[in-house]
Amino acid sequence: MYKNKQIGIVIPAYNEETQIGNVLDSMPDYIDQIIIVDDSSTDKTVEIINSYQTKFQNITLLEHKINKGAGGAMITAYNFAKSMDLDVVVRMDGDGQMAPKDLPALLDPVVEGKADYSKGNRLFTGEAYQKIPKVRYFGNAFLSLFTKIASGYWHVADSQSGYTAINKKALHMIDWNQLYTWYGHPNDILVRLNVNNLIVKDVPVEPVYNIGEKSGIKIGRAIFKIGWLLNKLFLWRMKEKYIIRDFHPLVFFYLLGGFFSIVTLLLSVRLFIYWFLNGYIPPINALAAMFSFMSASLFTLFGMWFDMEANKYLK
Predict the structure, then answer these.
(1) CA angle at residue 12 from 232 to 99, to 5 degrees?
(2) Residue-number span of the structural domain to which 307 is assigned
(3) Distance of alpha carbon 281 from alpha carbon 11, whole angstroms
(4) How far is residue 196's CA from residue 198's CA, in Å, rounded to a whole number?
(5) CA-based nearest residue to 192, from 151, 145, 235, 142
(6) Judgement on whether residues 72 and 157 belong to the same structural domain of the protein
(7) b (16+ CB within 10 A) / e for 46-55
(8) Quick one: 238 and 255 in the same domain?
(9) What angle do CA 13, 107, 223 make, to 5 degrees?
(10) How far is Cα of residue 94 from the mean position of the Cα atoms in its chain?
(11) Is 160 found in the same domain as 127?
């Protein structure tokens, strides 16, 4: 137990035979339950976990017959954790990239009732730029910016971090079966937390790389797929939170911002076609495009501002 709270760890694992043993060896004594979901590994991951089960009674292994992705493993893990009487559930990966020494800082806000969900932020530290591979660093920063807009948690960064802790209330409020199954599931979780008005806290954690882990992420593909996911999640959050559950006029600002953005694009295309065919731009066309662009920018910025105000108490 940690501060009189039952703590569980969920670990999604896929082909982690070189790392999973180190992860389990480094687990603090105050962890009550360890739930590992093997996502149809093709190496010796399951054998290694089985050997640890003979030594420790608090390890539960759940096996997928087919690979369901990191998000699919978390669906299984969280649904199983809901059936156990745990006060806080921590998610750690099986690749050893999450330092156990950061666990108390991650647990404290949730255990003390200051947050429903806490997540590690590797970008807080000045070491992040030196330790994180540059392509992943800039990809993470790009996705973090758009996750702020999509999720409504404007104070949260490092959106791709999977080092998290969630309390019992939040664990039972969310329908985990609807979770995105690929690498965008941390972004999906943040959006679902926001729709349920749950408090999220960022916690500085150490970035851990080059310890033998193998990444299956292709950055270019990930940015495109997660970017498209964030667009859908943003629209879903607007509908679910500000129309269905509780109406807020900020939806009008976003709608007008979107409308004038489309108009700006059409006017700009028309303007360049006219320029190409006739060699000059009519002033009224340029003025209309500029007016539309300014309207789109102002309406969108006001929508963001109202969204920030509506969610500031979720820090």
Answers:
(1) 105
(2) 248-314
(3) 60
(4) 6
(5) 151
(6) yes
(7) bebbeebbee
(8) no
(9) 50
(10) 18
(11) yes
Residue 1 lies in a domain: no
Give the least confident one: 27-41, 93-107, 138-152, 203-217: 203-217
Which tens digits make up the pLDDT trace of 259-276? 999 999 999 999 999 898
Q: Where a domain ends, among 210, 242, 274?
A: 242
Residue 94: phi and psi, rounded to 5, are -85, 5
Q: How far is CA 69 from CA 17, 31, 34, 181, 255, in A?
A: 17, 26, 20, 6, 34
Which among 119, 110, 105 has a CA at the least distance from the CA of 168? Answer: 110
Q: Which residues contact 292 (CB under 8 A, 6 or more apart)?
A: 260, 263, 264, 267
Closest listed residue to residue 81, CA positions, set 168, 182, 194: 168
223, 242, 261: which is the final residue of a domain? 242
Q: How many domains does the chain have?
A: 2
Residue-wise pLDDT tens digits, 175-213:
999 999 988 999 999 999 999 999 999 999 987 765 555
Q: Which two tokens stand for residue 204?
A: 């500085």
